[in-house]
Write a structure and sequence with these properties.
This protein is α/β, with parallel strands linked by helices. It folds into 3 domains: 85 residues, Helix Hairpins; 123 residues, NAD(P)-binding Rossmann-like Domain (Rossmann fold), CATH 3.40.50; 72 residues, Regulator of K+ conductance, C-terminal domain (Alpha-Beta Plaits). The chain contains 13 helices and 10 strands. The strands form 2 sheets. Strands 3-2-1-4-5-6 form a 6-stranded parallel beta sheet, sandwiched between helices. It has a 4-stranded antiparallel beta sheet with strand order 7-10-8-9. The protein is elongated, with a radius of gyration of 33 Å.
């Protein structure tokens, strides 16, 4: 995904050189060629003037039924038969192509894009994926498998085509442009992921996103180690290096293969009932301001693995007496039923009508 593009490239209609519009142009050129051929033929065969020959060709090809300009010779009559047959064929070709274009061509594409824009406008708490290269495609596949709502922002024609073939929600445009991120619903999004192939591009995307919405959580991809500090200065909340992660994973796969397989199984949500999950303690959560052992005891099949405080400090294997505070992010080994139970909020009882102080 390139970082700088001409905003005029963002179009509603995309002309396919092999689509219906090419056939319409071909039909129009064929009609013009027919007029030139017929006019030249009448001038040579009958010796007519240019105006008479052109008039005769048009009345013949359009089959309006007017009389001949002059009496035709035998050769002229045979030539007229050929012009009529060829003209009717060209007219039929143009008519069928126009109908096909309206029904199956650019109009259908415009309506499809309009429906896609309406679906994007209705997204809430979704993820914005900027870049649909090799890394972006893996992210989109994982989101799809987990049922996570997301929209892709991409301006590379080849990547845009792949995104459409997968059926993903996609906006064609430059993610460093304010209007493009607004169209992607940045003001309603949960997370923005800068996953283009360019470190500089991802830094600009992060800057643009944070300028539009400072509180949005941004995950930025970097390829070079030197780019990590720039991405963080731009406002990235999390910086990921695919090459560093791949190297670490390969080392762990060699040293602790069972651990890697176990974590993959849980993280991919394919471990049966148990899964790795995160839960943020809110102000009105039932587990807020409770000791960890008492709060987690509400869910019999859940294990508390770690707690991240609001300041970013991570507590692994928290002790039972620790009091859960609003803003704490819990890492749990749990299931869907327990997660719903732990995520419940306090209910405030409404006062009974007519009740009076004793």
């Amino acid at each position: 995904m390139s970082t700088v593009t001409d905003p005029s490239r963002k179009r509603l209609l995309h002309l396919d050189p092999y689509g219906p519009w090419r056939r319409v142009v071909f039909g129009g050129l064929s009609f013009i060629a027919l007029l030139a051929f017929g006019t030249t033929g009448y001038m040579l065969i009958e010796g007519w003037s240019l105006q008479d020959a052109l008039y005769m060709t048009i009345t013949t090809t359009t089959t309006v039924g007017f009389r001949e300009v002059h009496t035709l010779s035998n050769s002229g009559q045979l030539f007229t038969i050929f012009v009529i047959l060829f003209g009717v064929g060209v007219a039929l070709y143009i008519l069928t192509t126009v109908v096909q274009t309206v029904i199956e061509g650019e109009l259908a594409e415009a309506l499809g894009e309009r429906r896609m824009k309406a679906r994007i406008a209705g997204l809430r708490n979704h993820y914005i994926l900027c870049g649909f290269g090799r890394v972006g495609e893996e992210i989109a596949s994982e989101f799809t498998e987990r049922g996570v709502p997301f929209v892709i922002v991409e301006n590379n024609p080849e990547a845009v085509g792949r995104g459409h073939r997968h059926g993903y929600l996609l906006i064609e445009g430059d993610a460093t442009q304010d209007e493009i991120l607004k169209e992607a619903g940045i003001h309603h999004a949960r997370v923005l992921m800068a996953a283009s192939d360019s470190d500089a591009g991802n830094t600009y995307i992060t800057l643009t996103a944070k300028a539009l919405r400072p509180d949005i959580y941004v995950v930025t991809r970097v390829a070079q180690a030197a780019s990590e500090s720039r991405a963080r200065r731009a406002g990235a909340d999390r910086v990921v290096s695919p090459y560093s992660l791949a190297g670490r994973r390969m080392a762990l796969s060699a040293l602790q293969p069972l651990t890697v397989d176990f974590m993959d199984l849980l993280a991919s949500d394919r471990g049966g009932d148990q899964m790795l999950a995160e839960l943020v303690v809110s102000e009105d959560a039932v587990i807020a301001n409770q000791p960890a052992n008492q709060a987690i005891h509400r869910a019999e099949s859940t294990t508390l693995l770690a707690i991240q405080h609001e300041n970013g400090e991570l507590m692994v294997g928290p002790f039972d007496a620790y009091t859960l505070k609003p803003g704490d992010r819990l890492m749990l080994l749990s299931n869907e039923a327990d997660m719903e139970l732990l995520g419940q909020t306090k209910t405030i009882e409404a006062p009974v009508a007519g009740a009076s102080d004793a």
